């Protein structure tokens, strides 16, 4: 099998795996603080200590995955365009 055909055949599998990850776990660790929620600093003696809260994740340590963000955006646009009321939401 040529490398091009192999790449084409693996692409749907990788995509389905990423969709499954986004559905099972929509939040991943923050890339800036590695999921800690704050940065680590060292004091004068070289010991690690807690620094400031992470501004990117607002000290939660979590971020929304790109695939889940895209799905949420698509669902919001679809709901707004169908003019169909959501269950449990009064107009």
Keywords:
single chain; 4 strands; two-stranded antiparallel ribbon; 43% helix; 2 helices; 91 residues; alpha+beta
How does this structure look, described?
The protein is α+β, with helices and mostly antiparallel strands and 91 residues long. The protein contains two helices and four strands. The mean pLDDT is 89.
Biggest sheet, spatial arrangement of strands = 1-4
Mean pLDDT: 89
Distance between the termini: 57 Å
Rg over CA atoms: 21 Å
- Write down how many β-strands occur, each being a DSSP E stretch of 2 or more residues: 4
Overall 3D form: flat
Helix content: 40-55%
| Content of β-strand | 15-25%
User: Poorly predicted ranges (pLDDT <50, ≥5 residues)?
Assistant: none
Note the run of SSEs as H and E: HEEEEH
Which helices and strands appear, and what pairs or packs with what?
Elements: H1 3-24, E1 27-29, E2 38-42, E3 48-53, E4 62-64, H2 66-82
Antiparallel strand pairs: 1-4, 2-3
